[in-house]
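Need a sequence for this fold. Nothing fancy.
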């Protein structure tokens, strides 16, 4: 939809006319109706059974597009994201606020709020415990419950808003076991909940079991959320900024806990954060996102010791260190582009200090610079061609 006045002298404007808004709403309604019908269809399991490209992975996200349909246009929050989560590994997703980290995780859990929010296209391949592989993006909502909360669990950012204030911790923990396990009695559900509270390092599990959320500290509530995520023995834990609301001491305890739990549950962790220090300490692999796209990915050593994309370099320079106490903190200039009208060229171009003529062209392809290191930047396309 155009954003220009058709006058003698074309002038750029920052608003849409009523006619344009109605046209956008009409087009959006058709697309949303189609995607909602697909989401709530009845489907045989064979429709969403698939195969992993690499059997060593638990999760493979392939060219995922998740859009939000607004009256201003389509917000492409996740715009062609691809990365893998290997078995027994921690993959850190990093980037500034609004880059699409949380929307990617919510897409995996199929928690995108419709009808305005929809997985538009792409694949989310997940291998469950019996080695069946499902394409989560194609699963009807009625079938997603066999995976969500059972095979894949999520630890949310703010435990106080995730826990119900009118039910005890025990009631909320027991509910997870009742939903995902068959033949569970009240006593066996309580025993499982107490076991989980012990596992996450809570000293007096019986007391916490009978407490309400407001009676616990922030660190204790986050431990309860982790216990809740572990109650169904998941293969994959998605931790969406699990330490943001906690003080530094409790942050360290929670990170130590997550590191220990990964080996105990024999599973993988997808860790979402904007804190590079957390990524350096926890992750085996790192995915750097910007404006809904993956702009660089590799092992934690490659990303921290050999960052390639100018945005990744800027992120690392903007992190305060003990040596920089007398220096002005580095700031990446400019702003993220409008998510409705994304440019055809590199999204970081207007903020990049290493722009070349080719940056005015199409969005750069992902270039492989090592077996595990990839970057989406025209600078390395040239290097590859010269090599």
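Here you go.
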């Amino acid at each position: 939809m155009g954003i220009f006045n058709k006058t003698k002298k074309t002038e750029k404007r920052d608003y849409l006319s009523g006619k344009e808004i109605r046209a956008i709403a009409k087009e959006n309604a058709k697309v949303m109706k189609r995607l909602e019908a697909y989401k709530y269809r009845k489907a045989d399991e064979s429709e969403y059974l698939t195969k992993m490209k690499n059997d060593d992975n638990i999760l493979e996200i392939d060219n995922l597009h998740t859009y939000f349909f607004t009256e201003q246009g389509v917000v492409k929050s996740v715009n062609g994201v691809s990365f893998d989560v290997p078995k027994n590994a921690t993959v850190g997703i990093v980037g500034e606020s609004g880059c699409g980290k949380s929307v990617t995780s919510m897409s995996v859990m199929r928690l995108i709020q419709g009808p305005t929010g929809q997985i538009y296209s792409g694949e989310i391949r997940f291998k469950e415990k019996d080695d069946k592989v499902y394409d989560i993006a194609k699963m009807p909502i009625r079938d997603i419950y066999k995976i969500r909360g059972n095979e894949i669990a999520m630890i949310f950012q703010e435990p106080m808003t995730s826990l119900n204030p009118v039910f005890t911790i025990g009631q909320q923990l027991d509910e997870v076991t009742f939903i995902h396990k068959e033949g569970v009695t009240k006593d066996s559900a309580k025993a499982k909940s107490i076991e989980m509270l012990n596992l996450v390092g809570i000293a007096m599990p019986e007391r916490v079991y009978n407490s309400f959320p407001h009676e616990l500290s922030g660190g204790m509530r986050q431990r309860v959320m982790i216990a809740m995520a572990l109650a169904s023995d998941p293969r994959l834990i998605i931790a969406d900024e699990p330490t943001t609301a906690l003080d530094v001491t409790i942050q360290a305890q929670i990170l130590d806990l997550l590191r220990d739990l990964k080996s105990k549950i024999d599973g993988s962790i997808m860790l979402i954060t904007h804190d590079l220090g957390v990524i350096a300490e926890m992750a085996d692999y790192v995915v750097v996102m910007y404006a809904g796209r993956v702009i660089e990915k590799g092992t934690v050593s490659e990303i921290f010791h050999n960052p390639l994309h100018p945005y990744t370099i800027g992120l690392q320079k903007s992190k305060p260190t003990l040596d920089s106490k007398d220096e002005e903190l580095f700031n990446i200039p400019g702003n993220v582009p409008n998510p409705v009208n994304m440019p055809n060229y590199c999204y970081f171009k207007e903020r990049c200090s290493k722009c070349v003529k080719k940056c005015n062209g199409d969005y750069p392809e992902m270039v492989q610079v090592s077996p595990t290191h990839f970057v989406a930047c025209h600078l390395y396309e040239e290097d590859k061609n010269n090599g």
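For context: The chain is about 35% helix and 20% strand.
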